[in-house]
Amino acid sequence: MLTRIFDKFGIPIFRKPKPVVAVLRFSGVIGQVGNPIRQGIYADGFIKPIEQAFNLKNLVCVAVQINSPGGSPVQSSLIFKRIRSLAEEKDVPVIAFAEDAAASGGYLLACAADEIFVMPASIVGSIGVISAGFGFVDVIKKIGIERRVFSKGENKGMLDPFQPQNPDDVK
Asked: Which residues of 14-27 are buried (b: 16+ CB within 10 A; e: fewer)?
């Protein structure tokens, strides 16, 4: 009865604090983008909001909303590490939600969570590096071109399209 009276007058003495879920939104390319209107996702711009999210009173969970094709591996890693370290330090679970994409570095951000939720049509995954090229070895032989390369140091000619593929370059 007394609780109802206090509630009626908006006196919070007997109210239990409401649980809080912080939401961090990561949308766009990871790394500093040269566009002043649409900024990229980068550690310097997100570390403070991440720390603020983990310092909220009555925090029960941090939700990470991701819509990113990826980008800078360094920036992705810095953000990932900060989320994980605060989650462990504060003992707060992190849940990630992928929208259209959580690919490459965007997927690394999702991996900072304890659980990841995605839509069936979301593009998710693909942490790694790809390098593509062409092999012109037979073409330059056929047309009689002699190629001369001067370099100093190991691996300077790695993935050279004018040389046969070296199995050591593919490791």
From this structure: eeeeeeeebebebe
The whole domain housing 153 covers: 131-171
Count of structural domains, the chain = 2
Q: Helix, strand or coil for residue 27?
A: strand
- Regarding whether 171 and 92 lie in a shared domain, the answer is no
Going 34 to 36 to 39 to 45, the CA torsion angle's sign is positive
Tokens standing for residue 25: 């939104």
User: Is the same domain home to 57 and 94?
Assistant: yes
For residues 39 and 58, membership in a common domain is answered with: yes
CA distance linking residue 106 with residue 84, whole number of Å? 15
Residue 118: pLDDT band with limits 50, 70, 90:
very high
Q: How many residues does the chain have?
A: 171
> Model-level pTM greater than 0.70?
no
Is residue 52 located within the same domain as residue 116? yes
Q: Is the pLDDT of residue 11 over 70?
A: no
**Are residues 19 and 91 located together in one domain of the fold?**
yes
Residue 163 and residue 169: Cα distance in Å, rounded?
12
